[in-house]
Give the backbone structure.
Amino acid sequence: MITNTELEYKGNLYPNHIVEFKQDNDKLYFTTENGVILQVTILRGSVLRFRYATNHVFEPDFSYAIDEEASLGYSILEVTENETEYLVKTARLQLLVDKMSLRTQISDLDGTIINEDEAGFHWEENYEYGGNTVKMSKMTPTGESYYGMGDKSTHSNLKGKRVENWVTDSYAYGKDQDPLYKAIPFYIGLNRGRAYGIFFDNSFKTHFDFAYEKRTVTSFWADGGAMDYYFFYGPDMSTVVSAYSNLTGTPELPPLWALGFHQSKWSYYPESNVKEIANQFREHNIPCDAIYLDIDYMDGFRCFTWDKNHFPDPKRMISELEQDGFKTVVMIDPGIKIDRDYWVYQEALENDYFCKRGDGPLMHGKVWPGECNFPDFTNPEVREWWAELYKEFISDIGVHAVWNDMNEPAVMEVPSKTAPLDTRHDYDGYPCTHRKAHNVYGMQMVRATYEGVKKYVYPKRPFVITRAAFAGTQRYSSTWTGDNVATWEHLWIANVQVQRMCMSGYSFVGSDIGGFAEQPNGELFARWIQLGVFHPFCRVHSSGDHGDQEPWSFGSDITDIVRKFVEIRYQLLPYLYTMFYKYSKDHIPMLKPLVYYDQEDTQTHFRTDEFIFGNQILVCPIQEPNAQGRRMYFPKGKWYDFWTQECLNGGKERWVTAELDMIPIYVKAGAVIPKYPVQQYVGQVKLKELVLETYFTVGVETSEVYEDAQDGYDYKKGRYSLRNFKLTGKEKSLTIQQFKDGSFVTGYEKFRFNIYGLPFKIGKVQVDNEEVNLKTVRSNGDNSMLIDKNFTLLHITSK
Ligand code: GLC
């Protein structure tokens, strides 16, 4: 039971006994004598939706979070009852609904309780605004841990914490500061090896208490709207995260260049400065694919305009940068300057596209351009208009991608930092105030941006980045963790936030490498790059008023370290792209915290630092100054040192060395890791071969490599190449089988296998059952060989 909500406490109300039960296909309705209706929808055998009405009236069934393409369907649904409860059975779960109290209990088919109501659903009537404060309290068994919840800058295990969701402009935020820029009301519970998830689909300010107020209770509640939540059962955490991710969606594949290294600053201008930065990258041989233009490219911070003094011919500049391998990404904010001579303002005003206050006047507030009005992106007509505004930018000028910022929306010089709560929104035909629309405002802005960019970059793929996000925003846009600070603590925060976002269905994420506010020293910058190249989105960005933050700004030693790590990222591009493919198609998070990787191992439940990059690379950043090494935990299995190829046993903590030019990176034994050559930008080099770094193991391990044209939509017509390598290692033999799917023909003809840890000397090599002459396939040493890319069976044996 939650009593201390912010509103004046009017008393909790509870459902009483059930007087009616009805079933309508996949929906079950339990109605209580005092007018509460619980609707349970069976979405899948292990996914249930719980939706409550009070006074017999449900809130409209509309959500921005849910992906229309979510795959649903169940096989078994049986409902029985006894004197005290209803029993609902699916292929994976049993649900009990108590007849006296409407409380629910979920167990697996063996009868082990997975999750049960404490007070269950209860509510307070909200006299000020109407509607209810809706609440749910669940039991917290001893030993239960909690994960997820978006961008919280706090320990990955949320047990004992209370957090809230209200997207907030949080310049120079700190550890444990809450809320930040994202609202993702989804958590994962883990107890005795079993994981489940709860997604509270409510866009009002939501609150989560993970056994903070009471050791035995976990609660979540919202300032309005309905108690409407989804329950996902594992028992594996991976099943839970994928089910949530399937429900709220994943992005399509980005163009491959979007996974390259990006450089940004507030702001690079004039044109000569932008060009100079681009040239420096090429001179220093540091790969880079994109350069960002922050607000100063605009004319007086008016969106969709150019400062013609600083950028006299943006079209020419962008095309010259493009010839040198750079994509140009520009910022667009939501605030439209109040200026009667400004066409975007005029159009929005004439068409009534701006948000209005409760009693009718336009909502206005101060942002970079001064006083602004704010388009109501929750109105589909406004989104269409906004999408069209990108036409000139993209089709005529050649801008490649768009960065949406300040879309909480951030409003300056007001204590709330955002729009007043009485501001009205269309909410796609369910009109409401900002209390309900606030958390989705930025999401709807970037959705409109995505639609526009997608339309005008076609036949290429769109790339968009947003600061504010609600659950489901990952379908439209990448994101970053906002205005962090150049401190060692923030390096820790970036690591936790990015892993947490990945667990919360949002993998395409990174931090401002080096810190946005203040300036890092060379050591911190190097350590941050070493982490950042293993984040799905990899961009250096800084506020600029604290000095330079380009890779060469900290002396040649640091420049060399940056180059070395950015080169590793570029070599691993096919691996990273395959991670993205698995995320996009199978809803698998791109980074996996250790607890996700091995939830059975309780050692992992409170670890924050180490993570798995993709499926097979274990990374552990160095997060302290002057470190020569650190202790790190190796999850179960065997791990090869990325640098020395030494093989170690997992399941324990170890001291690992890490001079400034390296961090601990380990590869899972049995993995086949694809590598491209270093290129200065994606597409610079024509691929002659694909390197497959192969790490021997006794046993079986499978690896995948996804490739396609790196941009465009041909892959949707089957023109992709998905290779599955099944490695089987024995004492005296190594077998690799290749299974290939898709009709894309890669430009290279050969694989270069570099085999590590082979416990025997190669005597014989057979490709598709035919012996090959060792001399002709060997290159660069005994355990390296060039093999035709179409092989299906590679069999290597000892003498
Ligand atoms: C906000 C953004 C930051 C940007 C700045 C100026 O603070 O978070 O990335 O540089 O605005 O546009």
